[in-house]
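Problem: given the chain below (465 residues), write out its structure.
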Amino acid sequence: MYAYTNIIYDLLIILLLIGGISQFRSPKSARTGNITAALAMLFAIALVLYRYPATHQSLVAAGVVVGSIFGIIVALRVTMIQIPSMVAFQHGAGGVAAFIVAFVELTRQSAELTTVGEISGYLGLFIGAATFSGSMLASGKLAGKLKQTPQVLPRHNMILVLLMVLIAALCIAARFTDAGIAPYIYSGVILLSIVLGVIFSMRIGGADMPVLISFLNATAGLAAAFCGIVIQNRLLIACGATVAASGSILTAVMCNGMNRGIGKVFTGTGISKGKAMNGFVTPKDVPQLKIPKPQEALNKARMLLNGAKKVIIIPGYGMALANAQFKVAELAKKLEKHGADVKFAIHPVAGRMPGHMNVLLAEAEIDYDKLKEMDDVNPEFPSSDVVLVVGACDVVNPEAIKTEGTPISGMPILKAHEAKNVLVCNLDQRPGYSGVENTLYRDPKTILLFGDAGKTITELSAGLA
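Solution.
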């Protein structure tokens, strides 16, 4: 009877977690979903502590209090610009937790573990440590603390394969080694896995960063699930597997959004070395870039917006940097009062993490129904009077579908170049994260409004009659 009761409690918490996650589909219910999922985690912690009373309860309580205070402080201080970096950091924290649990359990009860449990422990060590270092590197890149372009070593793939072979050899050796030496071998597995995570992630950058973030989300969940197998905890297995599954699905969505296979993203194949990362040469048939006088461009842009009946706004990471989402929302409301049909076009990999633009626009309380996915909105560009690009570059770059051998070649884009008029509110004319020059800027129907996007949007809004 006691066993059945435990299963029922576990199922209720798992269902509560899944119910919370299911509410993330809409900004209106996402806040409730977040609270629901957090409550599920709280109940899970409480249930585990009830079933397995801690020997040093004061130490556990202190850890919970310190961790909670730290989490609240970070959540209150982090800005929308820092969200991608924070998400990567959190994945890394999950990896640390996983490999610590795996290490403790392997050293504490190695003789009692089943073969499945022991293998799960090795996988927890490997995946957790690699997730930790890979996530820290990604966090540093996203925060601008590390070089953001891909870094490729000579024989990069061979180094990764060699590290995996060494890790596997150490895990096999640990099975046939004296219990006193095994912890040193486990430490070797952790160190090599940390190195592997760094070398794996350093080669990924540019437009591929959202794929890396979602992939690390999946590996953090996978490491947790393996730890759940080691300690025979259904809740940890279920929660970890749920995170791993959702992260895997999101990774596939991100790859589809770029029309690239996950293998090409993680092995660095499919990019010509002569044209990658700022080495791109503008085709000769593209008009020269002409930057009009700021006031002249602003006046022309205001005139177009005043007469527009259909406007599509394309947000990008530059909007987050300028904290311009609230001003964009204000402009959209003004345009609607003038009778314009306003929609927001969302590219799957816009920003630095999956769903980054959705979060920004939700923060500005823009109606979710106005947010249109790429496949739905692309057919509408030819009939739109004005497309307003706010801080986006790579996701509207025509070269992605016109030129081979660049970091974004083959990536589906938002077809802003098909609109009647295009307004670009970007900081400057420099290429986007991929390093590929945007030939949309050279299109005769494009008006360039370089400078702080927030200030530019405010000036456009003020000019509406």
